[in-house]
Design a protein that fits this description.
Helix content is 31%, strand content 27%. By secondary structure, the chain is an alpha+beta fold. It has a six-stranded mixed beta sheet with strand order 1-3-2-4-5-6, with helices on both faces. It has a two-stranded antiparallel sheet with strand order 7-8. It starts with 8 loop residues before the first strand and ends with a strand. Keywords: Hydrolase, Metal-binding, Metalloprotease, Protease, Zinc.
Length: 177
């Protein structure tokens, strides 16, 4: 069977996630089986987990361009909420192979971590994968909320998510675009 489109959902059976290496071994074959025009683009997946870290669902949330992907919180948390997940792992790839997180990667991880805590579905890891390896925010102890100063710096350099400031009734608030 020839695959012409990216795989959107993955059946994981009775698999459990114990480390970022488990995530890499699960998603690297998916990345390698993605056909060429799509393999060169950033993909963002969510892995919904139960309380014992058993995989409930894996979904391709969005596919972007060569160096960026638009990430909407509603899309990230929609399926985990429907599947009654109690934990979430966010995974995205770097088509160029560089496994160092960019400022926008750090901002996205921080923002999704904050939103997950508010929704009672904590993001327990954010993993960057390539065809060769992976980078885990949790293993590197980088899965924390950024200080306000760093958030403002990241939004100026951002390529993964963008904000638009909206002024309503004298209030300044941020909104995902």
């Amino acid at each position: 069977m020839k695959i012409t489109e990216p795989i959107k959902t993955i059946e994981a059976g009775n698999q459990y996630i114990r480390s970022a290496a488990d995530i890499f071994s699960l998603l690297q074959p998916v990345l390698l089986s993605t056909p060429f025009p799509h393999r060169n683009r950033e993909h963002v997946w969510t892995i919904s987990l139960d309380s014992a870290n058993k995989i409930l669902h894996i979904e391709l949330v969005t596919m972007g361009s060569v160096n960026r992907a638009m990430v909407e919180p509603m899309e990230v948390f929609s399926t985990p909420l429907q599947k009654r997940a109690v934990k979430l792992i966010v995974v995205h790839n770097h088509p160029g192979g560089l496994l160092r997180p960019s400022p926008s990667d750090r901002f996205m991880a921080s923002d999704l971590n904050r939103l997950g805590r508010e929704l009672k579905i904590p993001v327990i890891d954010h993993v960057i994968i390539s065809e060769e390896g992976y980078y885990s925010f949790a293993e590197q102890d980088q899965l924390t909320e950024l200080p306000r100063k760093d958030i403002m710096h990241a939004t100026m350099e951002m390529s993964t998510t963008s904000f638009r400031r909206i002024k309503r009734r004298g209030k300044l608030r941020r909104r995902f675009v």
